[in-house]
Design goal:
By secondary structure, the chain is an alpha/beta fold. 29% of the residues lie in helices and 22% in strands. The chain has helices at residues 6-10, 48-57, 72-86, 96-101, 114-126, 141-153, 168-179, 213-217, 249-260, 356-366, 376-395, 412-415, and strands at 38-43, 62-68, 91-93, 107-110, 130-134, 158-161, 185-193, 267-273, 286-293, 298-305, 317-323, 326-331, 335-340, 345-351, 399-402, 407-408.
Length: 432
């Protein structure tokens, strides 16, 4: 099985035989000069999108020119707050396709629900926009590969919203792992201990005024509206979200793979369920997943817990790496500590952040994909390993995977879950 090094990832390409898609028409990329003002549109502004807005507005010579959200109440409230904070008006759109038609927009920042991430990013690439896309970059494994292909075909800069990759401390921690500080690194553990309460079961209700429910559902099959979906708890329904391993957990899956220097696994085992609440969530509250790499002699463990729990060496959300000379604890997005030898003597440690938005802007200005800290191939891998764990959980059995072909070995039932049935016109194309 191929190891994905950072060099591999940054040079990732797709076959030249990929067929052209007739629409949408690609717009020639802008050649930015040092003083050119960059215009960004933020798509999805109710949750993470708020951070996207402030993150880009802090950048030199960058303006958030357009806000886009399918909920017009959220959109107009967001535009008003934007004007009050920045003393400038901002354009508003409910339909992201109109944003892509605007040739004055240089880049888009996507913070929609998960089931829209890949298609929104692919359409943006086809429209000649560079893309910052929230985690997970895709709702299933098929979409992730298509996004990688689209970024390569249309030569777009695509940054995955895993901000820990721009942390100076975490970059230093990875270098320590590569340099052998804790010896042979054989195991990575990701922990996602978040407070996730009972959401009840609110049943069906009329679509709220201002919400384009058809557009919100997008690639998913039609469901009646429920307040359980909008605006956050969609995370716990398979049509829209991926549970916490595919939510907060993407930061941890990404760091596990980065630290171990591996790609997708060969064997996946998962177990869990709903043990706390009798609510309408579909995804598991508790999930333990193991990803094995027998050829490399490495293993990843992911642990999701939703309520009362202990910490692991002070970590609720983070990662632990184990080597034959010590171990490393990464707490959150910008802090690491190391413990060496049998007596766990404190080793190197650091707490320092970074600016993931600036990294994206710098790469766009330079038109240089190799500058990205969270490039599109890593986005596909980090999301896909979470999807593999969810498939193992949903089927209730150990799965065997071919990481080169990106398919399960002799398992039609599992392979059918690598993609989904799409709803026209919101279709992730097989040929981008």
């Amino acid at each position: 099985m191929k190891k994905f090094t950072r060099r591999d990832i940054l040079k990732a390409t797709v076959p030249s035989s990929l067929a052209m898609m007739a629409i949408p028409t690609i717009i020639p990329s802008t050649a930015f000069g040092a003083n050119d003002r960059m215009r960004v549109a933020v798509i999805g502004i109710n949750g993470r999108g708020k951070d996207h807005i402030s993150g880009f507005m802090k950048q030199d010579n960058v303006e958030v020119a357009t806000l886009c959200d399918v909920d017009n109440v959220v959109l107009q409230s967001g535009a008003k707050a934007f004007e009050e904070k920045y003393s400038k008006k901002v354009q508003t759109e409910q339909d992201l396709r109109k944003v892509y038609e605007d040739k004055s927009i240089d880049a888009v920042s996507i913070a929609t629900p998960n089931h829209w991430h890949a298609l929104a990013a692919i359409w943006a690439c086809q429209a000649g926009k560079d893309v910052y896309v929230e985690k997970p970059a895709c709702h299933n494994l098929f979409e992730g590969r298509k996004l990688v292909e689209a970024a390569a075909k249309y030569n777009r800069i695509v940054q995955h919203g895993v901000q820990l990759r721009s942390s100076v401390a975490i970059q230093e921690a990875i270098k320590h792992l590569r340099d052998g500080l804790i010896g042979k690194v054989y195991m990575a553990r990701g922990t996602v201990y978040k407070w996730r309460p009972d959401i009840g079961d609110l049943g069906k209700s009329p679509v709220p005024e201002g919400l384009n429910w058809d557009l919100w559902q997008g690639p998913a099959q039609v469901r009646d509206f429920s307040k359980n979906y909008v605006h956050y708890n969609w995370h716990w329904f398979w049509d829209y979200g991926n549970g916490d391993v595919g939510n907060q957990g993407i930061h941890e899956t990404d760091l596990c793979m980065w630290g171990l220097n591996v790609g997708l696994p060969e064997t996946i085992t998962a177990a869990g369920g709903k043990y706390l609440w009798n609510d309408c969530k579909e995804t598991p509250e508790v999930l333990s997943t193991t990803y094995n790499y027998p050829k490399e002699g490495k293993v990843i463990q992911m642990e999701v817990r939703p309520w009362m729990t202990n910490k692991e060496d002070g970590v609720e959300v983070g990662n632990i790496f184990y080597g034959d000379k010590g171990y490393m604890v990464i707490n959150g997005y910008s802090d690491y500590k190391t413990y060496l030898g049998k007596n766990r003597e404190p080793g190197p440690a650091r707490n320092a952040g970074g600016d993931h938005y600036k990294n994206f802007i710098d790469a766009v200005r330079a038109k240089e994909k190799s500058m990205l800290n969270g490039p599109v191939e890593t986005a596909h891998l980090a999301a896909s390993i979470a999807h593999l764990g969810n498939i193992s959980y949903r089927l209730g059995r150990t799965l065997h995977f071919d990481p080169t072909k990106e398919t399960f070995v002799g398992d039609k039932e599992a392979n059918a879950m690598l993609t989904r049935k799409y709803r026209a016109p919101y279709v992730v194309p097989d040929k981008v």
